[in-house]
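Lab meeting, item 3. Inverse folding demo.
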């Protein structure tokens, strides 16, 4: 009987790179900071995330 190749679980295949977790954490912190600066207005989390992502990523690119 032919052996079947077992694949890794999805979580193991899609692990973030070492610094990706730190980037996500930095974006989350910045998004929360933006949320608080703008009066804790709910329902704009995606907008805050995108703005925070742009800020964090622009800072990352400058250091390279």
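The presenter then showed the designed sequence:
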């Amino acid at each position: 009987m032919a052996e079947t190749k077992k694949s890794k679980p999805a979580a193991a295949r899609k692990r973030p790179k070492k610094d990706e977790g730190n980037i996500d954490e930095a974006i989350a912190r910045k998004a929360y900071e933006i949320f608080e600066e703008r009066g804790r207005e709910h329902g704009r989390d995606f907008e805050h995330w995108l703005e925070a992502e742009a800020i964090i990523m622009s800072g990352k690119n400058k250091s390279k």
